[in-house]
Amino acid sequence: MTDHKRILIVGGVAGGASCAARLRRLCESVQIIMFDRGPYVSFANCGLAYYVGDVIKKEENLLIATPELFRQRFNIEVRLKSEVTAIDRDRRCIQVRDLAKATTYTERYDELVLSPGALPLRPDLAGIDLPGIFSLRTIPDSRMLRNWIQDCQAASAVVIGGGYIGMEITENLVRRGLKVSVIERENQVMSVADPEIVTNIHTSLIRQGVDLCLNESVTGFEPDKNHILKVNLASGRQIKTGLVVLCIGVQPETQLAREAGLEIGESGGIRVTSEMRTNDSKIFAVGDAIEVRDVVTGQDSLIALAGPANRQGRIAADVINGRTSTFRGAQATSVVGILDQVLAFTGPSENRLKRLGLWGRMEKIYLHPGHHAAYYPGSSPITIKLIFSKDDGRIVSFQAVGKAGVEKRVDVIAMAIQKRATVFDLEEAELCYAPQFGSAKDPVNVAGMIAANVMRGDVALAHWEDITGTSSLIVDVRNPSEYKKDHVKGALNLPLDQLRGRMGELPKNREILFYCFVGQRSYYAARALGQYGFKVKNISGGFKTYLLHKEAQSLR
Amino acid sequence: MTDHKRILIVGGVAGGASCAARLRRLCESVQIIMFDRGPYVSFANCGLAYYVGDVIKKEENLLIATPELFRQRFNIEVRLKSEVTAIDRDRRCIQVRDLAKATTYTERYDELVLSPGALPLRPDLAGIDLPGIFSLRTIPDSRMLRNWIQDCQAASAVVIGGGYIGMEITENLVRRGLKVSVIERENQVMSVADPEIVTNIHTSLIRQGVDLCLNESVTGFEPDKNHILKVNLASGRQIKTGLVVLCIGVQPETQLAREAGLEIGESGGIRVTSEMRTNDSKIFAVGDAIEVRDVVTGQDSLIALAGPANRQGRIAADVINGRTSTFRGAQATSVVGILDQVLAFTGPSENRLKRLGLWGRMEKIYLHPGHHAAYYPGSSPITIKLIFSKDDGRIVSFQAVGKAGVEKRVDVIAMAIQKRATVFDLEEAELCYAPQFGSAKDPVNVAGMIAANVMRGDVALAHWEDITGTSSLIVDVRNPSEYKKDHVKGALNLPLDQLRGRMGELPKNREILFYCFVGQRSYYAARALGQYGFKVKNISGGFKTYLLHKEAQSLR
Fold first, then answer.
1. Which of the ends of chain B has fewer CB neighbours closer than 10 A, N or C?
2. CATH, residue A391
3. Which of B137, B118, B21 is nearest to B70 (CA)?
4. CA distance A377 to chain B (A)
5. Residue at A83 is within a domain
6. Final residue before a domain boundary, out of B223, B248, B273
7. Residues B451 and B467 in one domain
8. Band of the pLDDT at B42, cuts 50, 70, 90?
9. What is the pLDDT of residue B509?
10. Could you read off the pLDDT of B233-292 as tens digits, one per residue?
């Protein structure tokens, strides 16, 4: 355990800070110096939007650890406002720019860990540098944004980009009473999820007064008087607004690595082994700047998440200390709260699987169970999409959206995917139940049961997007009152509870597609009539899913 | 799929009802008759306490399905107020007592499914049949209890037994403004969990005005005037109360099975195969009346839970239909809400493992992480106890108690146990994170990291219960202000952040046991000083765990 190595760490948030602390726990004698360009280390970057929203009231609450704590507790030297500008791999040293003193010096390393993170993308648009246009990556960023709102009495904001940060800052600006416009180039926000899954989020944004502009982009900015900006859109529309937040995404900060000749993957992140080593055996890289293997798709991907970054930091520390430790890859488990909705998922979306050419042997199911027992007051539905392999029932991914209980089910499935579980495992999962927390048949079980029925051939599935122009007969098995309120055009109404007595009304030589509201009654119908020789399919997820698809398609 | 078998089902709740519905989905042609002694089928027995508490306002909300629905939707005949009194296995028929008409008749079966459930225990005490003494198993039970509270203007109640039902009815009676006394024979409520884990529940009960009587039992009841009962206790104390609820437990209802010569297991439940078959191949049994294999301990056990009962019903239906389907056993995953506390667990407690002689190669850790990121307001701690195998790191069980986020972590671990995961899997689990939902290092990850550190030999653990009279030096590494407030008697204070400068004050020839508030700082201390040649251990779970143990031991 005695080792007088010198380990330098570039970047002091998440991965870098985790690596440093773990290094010290593993070895008292190595010298550890951590450099960060900014004025802080180890801050809660996932909390910045909530600081803007005044949910987190004090800036110091965002500081997880200070340089003093690193020094006292871990005997780690932290150098702030210190930008590492070059790596000399042959001489094993880095060039550091002291931003406060405006001086440059070199430091020798035995091992170097790069944790530079990712940079917010800044599009090259007219007026992009005008005051009032912000990104949200650092504490100073959020402080400036907060101050701007207060000092300029901003009453409105334009958020450009509808991803994680875009949605979180939207929620927080709405919370502060600003009128928010969201400009999103795609036909949906949160494009990591499938379009029909985010329909509820669009609805919720609009219902809460957000001006949601999909299929729209910004062409430039102009100043107006009184701290007002004019935002010009591709559609020709112009929005006058009190401030702009750029949330169009991030890109791995790879300049330093690139200039040092370290290998960059096709995804644009620094390429590392499962031991977090770059192509220089003395240089490690972790966090948002690297590409990681997606454990579900097998692809090298950019997955910028705090959990994996922390794990990578620990693994680099283990390996530097001569331990065997490897990163298993990431599965992109994620959650975002958006006003009254929670969207969470683990594993790839249908869109992503199709883009990667991996959809072939996949199947999907939809369901809309309550987040706890229906008989206990306050149950609210969760819309779930489960994707699995038709070959062996292996769970591929899980997307869920609703007001409550969403992240719990995603975490259970995240563990199931990690342990290569199948839909049959979900069917028999023993989860905890009391009526205020779940159901005797939890949404996880129900998803497993529906998928297992498909795997066993007990029911053939149809999907709404395949039905346009179908020659099959569509039968709505809900009650007449439900049917009357709204139904799929051309669908026949034959309530489930009358099915056995009236099956003579249905054709035996034509495929029948059953639907109900969420897909349970239509499954009963399909099971029953299938046994009487009818050619039947159940449309997964019922009329509720139909409405989500319809809404999503209307935005194409 | 054509089968004119006659399948009779005894008991129409949970297991029985699930079995009946699944049977019909699998086969349209079998005849299915379901008998229940009571006036309802398929009711929400887990909701009864909440109906008493007026959380669930209407009795009809407790009805999940009616006989009409079973008839119309599933072509299943339901006979209520029909008690099955005998089984003639040779002639394959049952004797049914029509409780309404007071007549008896026989019904022939091809296959019989027993789902009689469990009966509340009624101790043979003086006055047990007095008015005002209730059990809580059926809708009429809860209706009578509700009416009694209203009609007699009951202001106080005695709940006998501190298990699931006892705790749920206590919460609901408190909610209705009654002064509640809980009489529990053991030195803790919820004895399925370990005593130090329920300490917070004792505190919460007392804080909210519950008269908690541990190590106490009832010797009899006497009537008083004005609908008041006198409850006599073993200690000599007498409580005057408006009503009594008996919650001392349930026992499998096996009389019918016993009299028919079906095999009963040592646990007292009907013995079945993993296909849910009794020793008569034409008779199946499911639900609370059977014994099941505990997947963790391998023991045959009574595990009376709704989730497993439903699964067993489905499996019996599958097998009757000639399918291959087996019950994997149960792991006793469970959750109960008790006032402001949530207690949940999966797998056996330390006490149970010790009773079964299975503790030998087990280790345990304690932790007290926040339910979400500390920097986001409203984080509340979860007290966690993880038990794992020292041989291979396999997760054995998980107990957790706190105000929020408890059931989520238990469900993740339940899936992990199902898939035979290890603590190393928990360490690298990728769970969803945003600051209002969790932490970048989720409590599940932290539990895995702590346990993995133990597995890898990075830290030796000590436990508070082993420390009494120790010759080791106990060192409190918290800040002086924390130490001053309260500490373990005889402990030396040496704050973590001064440790490296002051290690000369510590002995090298004597074992040092470190503790802090929750166990993290003391882990850092143990890691650091271990490397300088000190003999060190970390006391798991810190001072917070010490206080829980101390409180629990004071009740012995």
1. C
2. 3.50.50.60
3. B21
4. 7
5. yes
6. B248
7. no
8. confident
9. 94
10. 999 999 999 999 999 999 999 999 999 999 999 999 999 999 999 999 999 999 999 999
Q: Which residues of B touch A333 (CB under 8 A)?
A: 430-432
Q: Are B56 and A375 in contact (CB under 8 A)?
A: yes
Domain count, chain B: 4
Q: Scan for tokens 């009587």, then name that residue.
A: B213
Residue A25 to residue B311, Cβ atoms within 8 A: no
Six-digit token pair at B233?
A: 């206790």
Cβ contact A415–B410 (<8 Å): no
Are the C-beta atoms of B208 and B175 separated by less than 8 Å? Answer: no
Find the domain containing B465 and state its range.
461-553
* Residues A207, A266 within the same domain: no
Domain-embedded: residue A333: no
Exposed/middle/buried for residue B16 (C-beta within 10 Å: 0-12, 13-18, 19+) = buried
CA distance B284 to B273: 9
pTM over 0.95: yes
- CA dihedral B198→B200→B204→B205, nearest 10 degrees, is 20
Residue of A40, A415, A499, A520 for testing the chain B interface, max B β-carbons within 10 Å = A415
**ipTM > 0.95, yes or no:** yes
A105 with A198, same domain: the answer is no
The answer, yes or no, to whether residue B2 has pLDDT greater than 60, is: no
Residue (of A198, A195, A199, A232) closest to A217 by Cα position:
A232
Choose the closest CB to A408 out of B306, B411, B433.
B411
CATH of the domain at A487: 3.40.250.10
Strand segments (E) across B378-483: 382-389, 395-402, 461-462, 473-476
Q: How far apart are CA A490 and CA A231, in angstroms?
A: 45
CA distance A514 to A487: 12
| Rounded alpha-carbon distances, angstroms, from residue B181 to A222, A305, B122, B208, B239 | 71, 49, 19, 12, 9
Per CB-CB distance under 8 Å, the chain B contacts of A47 are: 373, 375-376, 435
Across the interface, whether the CB atoms of A376 and B342 are under 8 A apart is answered no
Amino acid at site A461: L
Residue B28 with chain A: CB contacts under 8 Å? 528, 531-532
Contact flag B373-A414 (C-beta cutoff 8 Å):
no
Q: Which of A373, A414, A440 sits opposite B432 (nearest CB)?
A: A414
Residue B3 — very low, low, confident or very high, per pLDDT cuts 50/70/90?
Answer: low
Q: Per-residue pLDDT for B1 more than 80?
A: no
A233, A268: one domain: no
Q: Print burial letters for B288-301: b (CB count within 10 Å at least 16), e (below 16).
A: bbbbbbbbbbebbb
Structure confidence by residue, pLDDT tens digits, A35-68: 999 999 989 989 999 999 999 999 999 998 999 9
Residues A32 and A71 both lie in one domain: yes
pLDDT computed for residue A554 by the predictor: 85
Residue B514, number of CB atoms within 10 A of its CB = 32
C-alpha distance from B91 to closest chain A C-alpha (Å): 31
Is the CB of A333 less than 8 angstroms away from the CB of B430? Answer: yes
DSSP string computed for A6-45: EEEEE--STHHHHHHHHHHHH-SSSEEEEE-SSS-SSB-G
Between chains, do A375 and B500 touch, taking CB under 8 Å as contact? no
Q: Do A44 and B436 touch (CB under 8 A)?
A: no
For residue A520, give the amino acid letter.
Answer: Q
Residues in chain B with CB shorter than 8 Å from the CB of A57 are 377
Q: Of the listed B19, B93, B247, B516, which one is catalytic? A: B516
Decide if A46 is inside a domain: yes
Is-catalytic flag, A27? no
Q: How far is CA A408 from CA A1, B88, B388, in A?
A: 41, 48, 23
A436, A455, A474: which is the final residue of a domain?
A455
B408 part of a folded domain: yes
Spacing of C-alpha A245 from chain mean position: 19
